[in-house]
Amino acid sequence: MPKASSIIVSRDSNKVSRMINRSIICGLTSAGINVADLRSTPEPVARYKPIAFMRGGGVHVKIADNNPDQLEIKIFDNEGRDISVAQKKSIERIFNREDFRRSSVNEVGEISFPPRVPENYSEELLRYVDTASIEKRKLKVVLDYACSDASGVFNTFLGKLNCEVITLNAYHDENKVWALTPEQSQNNVSSIVKSLKADLGIVMGNGSESITIIDNLGRRISGTNAMLTWAKLVFSIVKKARIAVPVSATGEIEKLAKNFGGTIIRTKTNVRALNDAALNENVEACLDERGGVIFPAFQAAFDGIIATVKLFEAISKINRPLSDIVDEVPEFFTKCCRIPCPWEAKGKVMRYAMEYAKGKETHLIDGVKIILNHNEWALVLPDPDRPFVNITVEAASDDKVNALLEDMVSAVERWKTAD
Which residues lie across from 382 on neighbouring strands? Predict the structure, then answer.
């Protein structure tokens, strides 16, 4: 980035994130970059259209989702997308060579603290959703903020939706974030939903990028089940909608789309691919198997806050219990596993996978996806960051999917040690 450029820097509320965040700010300003410090801010809010505020991108620091002893530094561009793999490698090369740009005393960047960031985000959110439908429905919702920063953002607009909201853990507590597991939070919300006969429950994910849905019967809706539920909601509201999903997603989503005259766009499995689809494929939504949702008309990044409000909107417009929608989601049988594989053996595994796929329908969007018949397939995909190969399979029944996964695991184990 040229000198005097401006970028966003934000973090979660953990003290370690604050320490690293300040180090990054010092490094950026010493290289002549102006920094807009949002301090403790949910990642979707920090990612919201940096280009609209004349920012060249941003950096968000947070504790890793699955390991409290690891830190994640997320770098995004001026559209709020994760930077590309090529850009990541370029940054790593510069970092390892210590080839940093130096600035003179007069060129050191400035630090600013933009005001009303949550309020600006909330105002745009309310313009995007159909608030009249939500107000009319008068939903009763149980909302667990999981001690995240999202509570401060929701407080700026939740009262305008005419919902009865029972909130849990609506305060910052970096110790309780890890003391209370997601399963415990989901069980608590499920119990309260059933006791109070609420319309639904929501548990915010770490960083507010995703949510876990609890339906009106207290059932947890997550993973692929959540993806199919979202797809059905979108197709029910938007005629002939286009939805982007990873190549690893269940084939049942194409069948669901066909019933509604919709279209499914397949992408690579990484987050950047879904970000790009949000901007370039004219889709109504982008979904993944981890419960992430992107609404491109609002922003091209995963956002649990807008997902929550769009769920309110969808239930209000359809005017049916969420459990009815969930019950209509098609049954699926998918499984995946991760096999340790040395870096130097990954290429050999993929060559053998291509040989195995000869004579069969094959998709090479990401890894090697082998179509075995109309409802069975296997995906062999090397992990880009770790010494593993990921295998995903789908079949017509639980027994068949287990057998197929076992066969593919055995095949990959042979391939990685073959001469």
Answer: 389
* Contact criterion met (CB below 8 Å) for 317 and 130: yes
SS3 for 184-241, per residue? HHHHHHHHHHHHHCCCEEEEECHHHCEEEEECCCCCEECHHHHHHHHHHHHHHHCCCC
Alpha-carbon distances of 351 from 315, 331, 346, 370, rounded to whole Å: 47, 33, 9, 13
The string over 373-392, giving b where at least 16 C-beta atoms fall within 10 Å of a residue's C-beta and e elsewhere, is eebbbbbbbbbeeeebbbbb
> Pseudo-torsion of CA 83, 88, 90, 94, nearest 10°?
120
3-state secondary structure of 98: coil
Query: In this predicted model, what pLDDT tens digit does every residue of 260-293 receive, in sequence order?
Result: 999 999 999 999 999 999 999 999 999 999 889 9
Instruction: Please check whether residue 215 is in contact with residue 323, taking contact to mean a CB–CB distance below 8 angstroms.
Output: yes
Rg of the chain in Å (alpha carbons): 22
Contact of 245 with 288, CB cutoff 8 Å: yes
Q: What is the pLDDT of residues 308-339, one digit of tens each?
A: 999 999 999 999 999 999 999 999 999 999 99
Say if residues 27 and 34 touch (Cβ distance below 8 Å). no
Share of the chain above pLDDT 70, in %: 99
Compute the average pLDDT of residues 372-382: 94
In the chain, what's the furthest Cα-to-Cα distance?
A: 69
Q: Looking at residue 277, what is its pLDDT?
A: 97
Predicted local confidence at residue 180, as pLDDT: 76
Go through the chain and tell me how many residues it has. Answer: 419
Predicted model pTM: 0.93
Residue found under tokens 């096999």: 339
8 Å CB contact between 295 and 285: yes
Question: Among residues 278, 274, 285, 313, which one has the least CA distance to residue 128?
Answer: 313
Concatenated DSSP letters for 138-184?
T-EEEEE-TT-THHHHHTTTGGGGT-EEEEES-S--HHHHHHS-HHH
